[in-house]
Amino acid sequence: MGIESAAQHNKIEAIENGQTEEVVAHLHNHTEELEKLLEIDPDWNQRELAEIRSELSHLDSYPVYREYISGKTPNLTVLHASIEKLLVGLDALIAQSKDEGLTDEDLADELKLRALISERFKELTYRIRKYTNTVAQFQNIKLLKNNGRDVQSQLEKIDHERRRTHNALLDSLKTLTILAQEAQAMQALKAYSLILWANGMDASRFKESESAILVFDPQTLADRNYIRDWALAADFDERLNRAEQIGVEKNPEKK
After folding, report:
1. pTM to 2 decimals?
2. Domain boundaries, the chain
3. C-alpha dist (Å) from residue 15 to 18, 136, 251
């Protein structure tokens, strides 16, 4: 069996067994070539997206993906909006304090907290991409090993990187929760309600709320498998949205 046919065979087995990480690698390999394929055949986009959605429904992590796209679990858009509200709250507190005569030196803790929260905005997206990319790379190298290639050292290296990037993502989410709680303790969130979201809560209840700030609660963040599935759902969602947008741009009559 050649590598290409073996990859297809392994993909089918992975889907049937609900093996999330193997299918992540398959989706990455396909979507990375999206623009090139669209140049050749604009209709490819619709066919491939339909196939990908069908595959996602078989994954062991599909319930998390379904909740992610429905808004029942906080998605990146919600977390980014929460970060913006944290910054607005801190800016209001800092401005009020300066009106009362305090200086930047007096407000060193508040300004430092604001800077740390601001960093979370780009970092979350970056951490998710780094982690999911290493998941895909690990599975691709694992496939080569399964087909007789001597890639053990590469496999061990990328496995270490996969675990490191997973830990980094967890740390970033944990830090966001801690920083939000610090902002609350500083009385910077008087106009807002800080919600520590736990697995099982319906985040969509707060969709229209201008005051709700959602972050993950510590118990949810302690569940590595859940955060793995959440990160992969965020990656699936981002890739599918990008694919749909490219499809519209290349083939506007399909809009």
Report:
1. 0.83
2. 3-254
3. 5, 15, 30
